[in-house]
């Protein structure tokens, strides 16, 4: 590691590079102008006040000026690269890609306690400023920001405890807005170092060689929920199947970091296994809206304009409002209070985690007497037979992580 002093004389540049060529890579829509990204159902298109038009049909492929302004205001150091502290040629990077499909967003909305059709990918909790080369490598899956372990455990416990609940605690109430310390984790081996200012605005720079152990944590405003998706999908890309005695190793990560990466993947699996329930909730919402829009379903009073409601609908980017919020519904089911289904389960969620290694930590893989997801399947089956005999929902366990959850006969670790 060596130090060098560099004068900073370039002006503060506001432009975002949109010159990338069209391709079929995993890059965000800013590299694919005009590409339809996340087509939503017609009822979802009515909530453009919360979900920007780019999330429905991308027109210009860039974040709005208003979104960029909010991002600068929310960022820990303002408009500056989150990793290198550079102020030149910055680009707006998305943690959860704007190209995420509509059905995937619906599942996340359901699992995160968000009103269906309103998850705003242009919230500043899903964006950060990056230098062009780091943005390119980020979108390519080379690196990610790894959330703190305490947040991951809290999210895991909340997601598990509320797995069978229709009304879940909203993600912004579980992890409210704050500046958190994220580890810079590089999944691919490289020989190129990272040059970082010793502090924002400093003319002194330090060269950090790979695997970047000397790079201090990145202090960021992004929400761990979005970061978990980003880490899990990148880990799945590099290691689609986790098999063998030491599955899915990275030469660039410590054992502790690998444990957190796999914990992100486990949490993400808990979310996406609720796809069938999310579809059912979306259909029910659509049916309710259709009935409410039928002329016979309205009295003259109910058809009158509600100024307060209209004002709420016009609020822009409601997910950028600070402080925790709830999803409404039954208040007794907030905060992980167990339902009758969980009360009748053979063991508590905490005991289940301790017994079966829900964390998917590397050291726990070999201690399992049977595949991990087979136990999850059995647990859900017991709940389903006791609570919901008509629809056990076991079908959601079929397929790989790409189809959301590993098959029961696969040796998942």
Automatic annotation (TrEMBL):
Keywords: Endonuclease, Hydrolase, Nuclease. This is HNH endonuclease. Residues 1-42, 286-352 are annotated as: Disordered. The keyword Manganese does not apply. GO terms for molecular function: endonuclease activity. InterPro entries: HNH_nuc (IPR003615). Residues 287-304, 319-330 have a biased composition (Polar residues). It comes from the Eukaryota. Residues 15-27 have a biased composition (Acidic residues). It comes from Rhizoctonia solani 123E. Transmembrane segments: none annotated. Residues 87-145 form the HNH nuclease domain.
